[in-house]
From TrEMBL:
This is Peptide deformylase. The gene is def. GO terms for molecular function: metal ion binding; peptide deformylase activity. Keywords: Hydrolase, Iron, Metal-binding, Protein biosynthesis. It catalyses: N-terminal N-formyl-L-methionyl-[peptide] + H2O = N-terminal L-methionyl-[peptide] + formate. The keyword Metal-binding applies. One of its GO terms (biological process) is translation. Belongs to the polypeptide deformylase family. Its cofactor is Fe(2+). HAMAP family: Pep_deformylase. The active site is at 134.
Length: 166
């Protein structure tokens, strides 16, 4: 396994739309392993392939305390949703920033596993938020884009200052 470089907001590559995965082979498994290692090493709970500059519809998530419950979602589709919830979200592509975002409370998704088998998952709470957050990355959206233009500009300026400071 290898650590992958995570793109940082506002990198334009974060806005690329991911393509559907059609081949499930060793390279897909290797990418998922590398994404999981990168997510765990970065102390994250979710990572979309878009964030590591691979534009395929692949997500890894692990919200467990012991980090032994890896969830791999390939070609996820939201098929049912209801309710609303607000959560303070952070992102490995926007390190150090947390903002409140409104999302669906309960969701049902379909996805494919590493073997290409179609699965169905119902989620609520943090898992629901995490899935929606990562699915946004697959369509080129970063969570800060739910915020006002003023807040987005403020975050971009702070990130730019941090980059200049090294």
């Amino acid at each position: 396994m290898a650590l992958l470089k995570i793109l940082k907001y506002p990198d334009p590559r974060l806005h690329k739309i991911a393509e559907i995965v059609e081949v499930f082979d060793e390279s897909t498994e290797k990418l998922v392993q590398d994404m999981a290692e990168t997510m765990y090493e970065s102390k994250g709970i979710g990572l979309a392939a878009t964030q590591v500059d691979v534009h395929q519809r692949i997500i890894v998530i692990d919200i467990s305390d012991d980090k032994k419950d890896l969830l791999v979602l390939i070609n996820p589709k939201l098929i049912k949703f209801d309710g609303q919830q607000e959560y303070d979200e952070g992102c490995l592509s926007v390190p150090g920033f947390f903002e409140t975002v409104k999302r669906y409370e309960n969701i049902t998704i379909s996805y494919q596993d590493l073997k290409g088998n179609i699965q169905k998952l119902e989620a609520d709470g943090l898992l629901s938020v995490c899935i929606q957050h990562e699915m946004d990355h697959l369509v080129g959206k970063v969570f800060v884009e739910y915020l006002s233009q003023l807040k987005q500009q403020r975050i971009k300026k702070k990130i730019s200052k941090l980059r200049r400071a090294g």
